[in-house]
Amino acid sequence: MSPAVLDLVQRILFLVSIVTIIVGLKRLSSPATARSGNALAGWGLAIAVLATFVTGVPQNLGLIVLGLVVGSGLGWWGARVVQMTDMPQMVALLNGLGGGAAAAVSVAEFIAWRSGPGAGGPVHIVSILAGTVIGAVSFAGSLLAFAKLQGIGERAVILPGGRLLQAAVVVAALVTGGLAATSGGLPVFVTFVVLALALGVLMVVPIGGADMPVVISILNSCTGLAAAAAGLVLDNHALLVSGTLVGASGTLLTRLMCKAMNRSLANVLFGALGAAPAAGTAAAGAGPPKRPVRDVSVEDAAVLLANVQSVIIVPGYGLAVAQAQHVVRELADLLARRGVEVKYAIHPVAGRMPGHMNVLLAEANVPYSQLFDLEQINGDFERTDVALVIGANDVVNPAARHDKASPIYGMPILDADKARHVVLMKRSLNPGFAGIDNELYYDPKTTMLFGDAKQVLGRLVEELKSEA
Amino acid sequence: MSAAEVLTVLTIFVLAVFTGFEVISKVPVVLHTPLMSGTNAIHGIVVVGGIVVLAHAEGPWLVGLGFVGVVFGAANLVGGLVVTDRMLGMFKKKPKDAPK
């Protein structure tokens, strides 16, 4: 076949690939069809990769195949061995790789463009620079997010003058980018790349704890846009459309997550840099005198749980961190065998990512029929004997209902405080990620069970077994 | 690129943005994590960019960059799909006793 025909065939295959990916994404967003949607998207992606070879045997074919085999192998292996609780950092890592790939492609295109500056017109070079900067930000930011979630420097680090520094780096990147576009100089372009990497680091450094998924979601849409920019440069519509799809859907997903936490995106990104959370830290710090809390022994808690009619378990971030989902299931089964009615109340942002708790509990084979979301279960708390709160904090803080000064005011919460007893399992009295005290701790009907969620639950299970 | 070509590309971009919004606008919270991971796999399509770079690469720098693009992109693509499939596989026992 002539090159023109092959080119046409390639474009048609790219179109088929795009349609397949869009339909896959659509199915991915509905529970009944999600798994087949993911597979369909996979076929779409495979078609796009295969279509690349239609126009003839490329140069460096051996290297291309080697790269595909090595990359796919590593990705497949990593995805098989990762623990479900470590899913957030896995997504961050994979996203960083995608960002790195987009940046590498854009840098290569810059080097190619240098040999004849001006070629391809202004849109071409602007796309190259955009792909480079967005890809590099995503690469550096995602890898740092991965490191943080992996436990290497979990805390949010607040740099003095951090916002100023960020602004300075943005300006410097714009200037070097402009210079690189007009001169085609390599040193200035390398500076531009380094600045972009620094920007990615600066963006993620001040963010910690439960805000991380929002950042990962933002970086996810960034990588999509970087891929779209690479698609513009290479005049590849499959890349352009798929990248843009991810950029747009990622942005919407980020907004949905922020809404569930009642936080604005600006607050997540810049909150730790500015003075916004000052009120919260003051309240948690020296502010009010420490009120007494009642703590309870594991034995007493076991007796209480074993002798009631109904228990609602409220799992939170602490449960995910302690990887305690399996032992929670065990506890729930023991209670159920004693005739206690057990339900789980899942807050939209419970876990380390929205929806993560559902994944974790599903992994532990908790029957889907026992999981209830916020609207379904909130009315049940007042008819419930014990609300067992495990490693959750802000999502059960009553201040969200009535304290207008609270940073989480207005966030939908689980009404655990309306149950007859509240047993709160927590590592310490330290406030949650929002840095605010929780009046539920001091409620007279609340008893605290201090310790690592997995250990305490394990001892509760032992206790219940020995009693039986 | 001519002005007409720029506009064509811009049109594709704008339509893709709307499609991206529309397609996931009704996603339930349960699927937020799998969806993030699924879209994560889709931008692994950048592997195609790596292949194109390698196919035209002259000199060690371009070959190196293209190779990095292919390895990283392929890892992103395959890893993302497998992780998403594992997550969704855990929900499969659901249909009969789903609360909704």
What does this structure look like?
The complex is a heterodimer of chains A (468) and B (100). With 468 residues, chain A is α/β, with parallel strands linked by helices. Chain A has helices spanning 3-28, 34-51, 61-81, 87-114, 121-149, 162-183, 186-204, 212-233, 237-260, 265-270, 278-284, 298-306, 317-321, 325-337, 356-363, 374-377, 399-402, 453-467; strands spanning 310-315, 341-346, 371-373, 386-390, 421-426, 446-450. Chain A is 60% helix and 7% strand. Residues 273-289 of chain A have low confidence and may be disordered. Chain B is mainly α and 100 residues long. In chain B, 71% of the residues lie in helices and 0% in strands. The model of chain B is unreliable at 94-100 (pLDDT under 50). In chain B, helix 2 packs antiparallel against helix 4 (60-89) and helix 3 (47-55) packs antiparallel against helix 4 (60-89). Chain B contains four helices and no strands. Chain B starts with a helix and ends in an 11-residue tail after the last helix. The chains are: A alpha/beta (468), B mainly alpha (100). The interface between A and B is large, with 111 and 83 residues.
Give the radius of gyration of chain A. Answer: 26 Å
Described by strand count, sense and barrel closure, the largest sheet of chain B is: none
Helix content of chain A: 55-70%
Distance between the termini of chain A: 78 Å
Which chain pair has the greatest contact? A-B, 111 and 83 residues
Spell out the helices and strands of chain B N to C. Answer: HHHH
Shape of chain A: elongated
* Mean pLDDT across residues of chain B: 88
What gross morphology of chain B would you assign?
A: flat
Strand content of chain B: under 5%
Total beta-strand segments of chain A: 6
SSE class of chain B: mainly alpha
Strand content of chain A: 5-15%
Low-confidence stretches of chain A: 273-289
- Number of helical runs of chain B? 4
Enumerate the spans of chain B where pLDDT stays under 50 for 5 or more consecutive residues: 94-100
- Taken in chain order, the helices and strands of chain A follow as HHHHHHHHHHHHEHHEHEHEHEEH
Helical proportion of chain B, percent range: over 70%
Query: Strand count, sense and closure of the main sheet of chain A?
Result: 6 strands, parallel
Rg on CA atoms of chain B, Å: 19 Å
Class per helix and strand makeup of chain A: alpha/beta
